[in-house]
Here is the input.
Amino acid sequence: MEAKKSIYIIDINDITSKNDSLNYTIDKEFFSSFENDEVLDANCDVKILIEKSNNSTKFDLTIEGTLSVQCDRCLEEVIFPIDFYTVIYVKSTSEIEENTWNDNGEDEILWVNPNNATIDFKQYIYDSLMLSLPMQRTHGNENIGEQECNSDILKLITFVEEKEEEEE
Ligand SMILES: [Zn+2]
Here is the structure.
């Protein structure tokens, strides 16, 4: 086990100033560390603005950039823009043992025990990015502009499918 503390795990007790910020760059390696080979390439900037008040710590999180995955149709790489924004409030209470997520409809609230007042942004960023990918991962998706399927491969797929039908 590596003793070095992850840069993504933030201890609320360590935040001493009222306003602070965090920046991360998400690349392919980030996804490899989750053993995710679905994401072929990644280039995202994460900006987190921190605002500490008496009863909570507010994290203003923005993720912008691109993720590349395999096109469901032509199997070539397709690049999706990522534009994710959320606000997380971390509040502490000794009434709970384990960190608990709560959703009030608009903002997300993470309740933490004062003795273990940490938030792991690695898992959070990973989940947010995976959820940002559309269900239909194909070229021609309305969110991605001018990218188109590889027409040679499409022709080939259609040819093989027709051939299979003939043989049936
Ligand atoms: Zn395609």
